[in-house]
Write a structure and sequence with these properties.
This protein starts with 11 loop residues before the first helix and ends in an 11-residue tail after the last helix. The protein is an alpha/beta fold. The chain has a single domain, classed as Spore Coat Polysaccharide Biosynthesis Protein SpsA, Chain A (Alpha-Beta Complex). It has a 4-stranded mixed sheet, covered by helices on one side. It has a two-stranded antiparallel sheet with strand order 1-2.
Length: 234
């Protein structure tokens, strides 16, 4: 998925689409393609929209990476899942991922685990711990009174990393030519009582949605050029 505007990385994304923003000597998207080749993938479909001509010019047909690359062009924003409805020949099981992902997850093993578990949907998840640097209040909304207080609490939770494996049957939930996000799909599957499998990622995952996150990832890669090499967990 490489069609978004990457607004949180402005001003870089005024000039480049987010997947082409460089991390070190290569763009994020080129690093992802190289990782996919390492993990045994041979074909990639890139959903493009914003500044798509630049992505298509840089990546081309994928032959320089050892891949076959095709493009699904979004004439209007379709969200993180909506573009799938326009792709007629998806495999029975396939990987869907953001085009700006920074992780050492072995994508091939992720897809294989998804297939072996017979899941309709597998979501890459990561444990996060965040400290709130403020006093947090619990309010009784009806009475407009404070009923609890915690000084600078720490919260543990799991987040989606933007890498998912799906069985083709999930396409029944995806409307054609309509904006449809990952959140819409999750809500629909949960409402229908469909099991969604969590694939826990325990290695590296770094969100680069904000400038400070992007700068941190750039520094990490400068210190360790092999940081994004896919790590086998088997």
């Amino acid at each position: 998925m490489a069609g978004g505007k990457g607004t949180r990385l402005r001003p870089f994304t005024h000039v480049l689409p987010k997947p082409l923003v460089p991390i070190g000597e290569r763009s994020i998207l080129e690093r992802v393609l190289e990782q996919l080749v390492t993990c045994g993938f041979t074909e990639v479909i890139i959903a493009v929209g914003y500044k798509r001509e630049l992505i298509m010019a840089v990546i081309g047909d994928g032959s320089r990476y050892g891949l076959k690359v095709r493009y699904q062009v979004e004439e209007k924003p379709l969200g993180t899942i909506g573009a799938l409805a326009g792709i007629p020949d998806l495999d029975e099981n396939f990987l869907v991922m953001n085009g700006d992902i920074c992780t050492d997850l072995h994508f091939g093993e992720f897809l294989q685990d998804h297939v072996e578990h017979g899941a309709r949907a597998s979501v890459g998840t990561y444990a996060r711990r965040e400290k709130i640097e403020l006093g947090v209040l619990t309010l009784d909304e009806g009475a407009d009174t404070i009923v609890g207080f915690t000084e600078k609490p720490t919260y543990d939770f799991h987040v989606s990393i933007g890498v998912n494996a799906f069985h083709r049957s999930i396409l029944e939930f995806v409307p054609t030519d309509t904006f449809y996000g990952f959140d819409h799909l999750m809500y629909r599957m949960l409402e229908d009582g469909i099991t969604i499998r969590s694939h826990r990622v325990e290695g590296l995952w770094q969100d680069i949605g904000r400038l400070d996150d992007y700068e941190r990832m750039t520094e990490l890669l400068r210190d360790d050029p092999g940081l994004l090499q896919p790590r086998s967990r088997r």
